[in-house]
Write a structure and sequence with these properties.
Helix content: 40-55%
Shape: flat
Number of helices: 19
Distance between the termini: 59 Å
Structural class: mainly alpha
């Protein structure tokens, strides 16, 4: 029976050898990581300790890692990331690095570094460590595999229930096996359905941009109108990404931010000087088979930006608030009434509007005007 079940490895006693090989592989990988750390010189180890605040630096309340994130943060950290600091360190020798640290340029950098009292040796050790980290990279954040683990456990439960049902018979009451298998299979179907529905949707997507740009600072505090930067939002298919020249209308004069200091604005200046476009990461992205026109919604529909994009003027880092699913769009079309009075878009449909008004009263939704027809968005 063991052979029929495909467990020849157990009969031939091969399983222990397989486990030994796997364990050796795991131990070898751990040894490589340990060996790599052991080969770091004492200067690099001390430089690492300085960066992580494990060495006295004159400021017991802060450390480099306290301001310069290694991992992505849930909130916008205006300070340069640890990776950016490491790259900057490679552009300087140890003396220049020390001078930049001790004689910071700009109020933001000065307020952050003024309390630190490093020795010349510590400066050299910190610089060497950052140069090494620019080559090797900082430790990566561990991924979580909760759903995968749950899926594997459910599959194991189903397999165990089937084996017990047909062969081992530990549980004598057979309906229990059927119930276990159905519950586990049902939960797997639920998980698969949920993941399938979410394909292509990026609600709450909030990436780090190449330059830390705050809508809260620009739109709310400085009262810059949305259309000043997104000039196509009411007259084009897409809202448009502002050109660097638009940014330079202000930043040709403003070279230091109250939050970001000079570092982020310096990135913009560098892109302008090199005539290199900024590779902004698109957040609100619809599938290729969906047609969407900003002008139709902003100019004709007279929607406010916040209705789709959320309270952007209070966001330091923009995220996708709505799921932008088809159901979300269709529901909006069913609820939103159109404003035909003085709206040039509807002038040529006066007869149609009069007929609709006669039957439906004063409230006409976008769906009743054909907004939910399949060919409006898919053609």
């Amino acid at each position: 029976m063991i052979r029929l079940l495909g467990f020849n490895a157990i009969q031939n006693k091969k399983i222990p050898y397989i486990i030994m090989v796997l364990l050796c592989g795991i131990l070898f990988n751990n040894y490589k990581a340990y060996a790599a750390s052991e080969h770091m010189s004492i200067d690099l180890i001390i430089g690492e300790r300085v960066f992580y605040g494990l060495v006295e630096t004159g400021n017991p309340t802060q450390s480099c890692i306290g301001c310069h994130d290694i991992y992505a943060s849930d909130t916008l950290n205006w300070n340069p990331t640890a990776t950016e600091v490491a790259f900057s360190a490679t552009q300087l020798d140890s003396t220049q690095f020390k001078n930049l640290f001790q004689n910071p340029s700009g109020a933001k950098l000065e307020s952050s570094h003024s309390a630190y009292k490093l020795t010349d040796k510590q400066f050299n050790e910190l610089h060497s460590y950052l140069v090494l980290m620019n080559e090797t990279g900082f430790k990566k954040q561990k991924h979580t595999y909760n759903n995968l683990i749950i899926l594997l456990l459910l599959i194991i439960i189903i397999i165990a229930a089937k084996i017990d049902l047909f062969f081992t018979h530990f549980i004598k009451y057979k309906p229990i096996h059927i119930i276990i298998i159905l519950l586990a299979a049902g939960y797997i179907v639920k998980m698969a359905t949920h993941e399938a529905i979410g394909l292509g949707r990026t609600q709450n997507y909030e990436p780090d941009q190449p330059i830390k740009f705050s809508h809260k600072v620009h739109a709310k505090q400085n009262k810059i109108d949305c259309f000043y930067c997104h000039t196509n939002a009411d007259e084009g298919k897409s809202a448009g990404i502002p050109s660097m020249n638009v940014c330079m209308n202000c930043h040709s004069i403003v070279r230091e931010g109250s939050n970001s200091g000079k570092f982020e604005i310096a990135k913009l200046i560098d892109h302008v000087d090199k005539n290199k476009p900024i590779e902004w990461i698109k957040i609100h992205d619809l599938p290729d088979h969906v047609y969407f026109n900003h002008e139709q919604h902003v100019k004709v529909g007279k929607l406010n930006c916040t209705e789709c994009h959320g309270d952007v003027e209070n966001m330091d880092r923009v995220k996708q608030v709505s799921d932008l699913s088809m159901g979300w769009c269709l529901d909006c079309h069913k609820e939103k009434g159109i404003d035909a009075k003085g709206n040039g878009y509807y002038q040529h449909n006066k007869k149609v509007l009069d007929a609709i008004h006669a039957n439906l009263g004063d409230t006409i939704t976008a769906a009743q005007m054909g907004a939910n027809d399949c060919m409006k968005c898919h053609y």
